[in-house]
Specification:
alpha/beta; 2 domains; two-stranded antiparallel sheet
Length: 371
Amino acid sequence: MKKQIIYIHIGCHKTGTTSIQIGLHSQKKELQRLGFSYHCFEGTPAANRYLTFKDMKEGFFIKNYDLLIKKLREENKEKVIISAENFSFIFSKSELRTLKRRLSKEFHEIKIITYLRRQDSHLVSHHQEGSKPDRVPEELLWGYSTEALPKYTPGHEKYLNYYQRLSMWSDVFGIGNVLIRVFEKDKLYRGDSFLDFIQSINLPSENFSPPTKENKSEGSVKSKYGHLINKTIKNPDIKRALYHSLPNNPEKHLPTASAAEDYYQKYEKSNKNLALNFCNSNRPLFSDNFSMYSNPELSPISCEDVLTTLLEKCNDIFSSFSVEALRDSAILLEGKSPELSLALMEMAKTLRPDGPLINRKISHYKRSRKG
C-alpha cells in the first residue's frame, strides 16, 4: 500500500545539510510523534550511502534501488523524509526518471527540497571541502587550485547553474514539487537551516531544537596544501596522514571581493530565470553583499613551517620501513605470492633505486609474470 508523501532533501552541499541531517536524526522520536519517519542509511544520520559516484558526465546514482525501496517500505509512518546532499551530484535525467518511477509506486506525493547558496560563496566553501582526502567528485569538479576561488570553467555549470540543474528535477518531478530555500542567515527561519527545514515541511518549529553546528571549514593552510597533497599523492593512506598533520590555522582562505563578484556575474542571468520560474519572483534570489571578502588576511604560518611539518610526517611514515625487511619479505614470498613479492620489491626500490639485487629481482618477477 502506498504511503502518503516522501520529502527528498537534496542538499546542496555546504548549505547546512549536515546540521539538518543531525537534527532530524537526533529528534526522530518527535518526528514519529508528529507522524513522520526520517529514513537514513544504517549507522549514519543521512542517506548518502545509497548513492555512488559513476563519472563526471552522469555524477551519482542509486546503487541498489531494491534495497532503498525495501527499507522505505519498512518505515511505519505515512510521511517519510530522506536527506542526502549527493542527490545534488546527480547529473543524469535518466537517473532521475528511474528515481521517480520507483518512488511513485510507493508514495502518492514526492516533494524535492533544496537549499541554494550564492555561487561564489558556494564554490569557495565546496572547493575547501575538496582539499580534504577522499573527495574525488569535488576534485574532478573544482580541480586542485590553491586559490580560494578557482577560475571559472564550463564544467562548473553542471553544479552551479542552479536553473539548469533544478530544471532537470522539475522536468521529472514537476515544478510545483520542487521547493527552493536560500541559504542566507536572514532568509532562514530564525537564521537556522534545521529549523527552516522543519518549517518548510509544515511542522511546528517550537517542538524542535537546532543541533550544534557541524562540518566547519578548515583554515587556509589545510585548504591550500590539502589541494596540493590530493594532486600529487596517490596513496590514500599517505594522503590522509599528510593532510591530518597540517596545522589548522584560524584564518579562512578567501578571495578578494572583486574576484567573487566577477565570478557571480556569470550566473546572474540563470539566477533570474530560476527566481522567475521556480519562485514566481522578479527579485534577486541572493544578496549582493560581498563585504565578507574584504581584505582577506594572509596566514601567519610560513611555507617553511608547513614543509617542516610535512617532512616530519614523511619521516614518521617511512622510518618504520626498512629496505632490507621489504626486500627479504619479497624473496620469502616468491613461491606463495609473486604479485605481492613484486609490490614489496618495488617499494624497496623507491627507497634504494640503485640496489642491484632489488633491480634483478624486479626484472625476474616481471619476466615470470609474462610467462
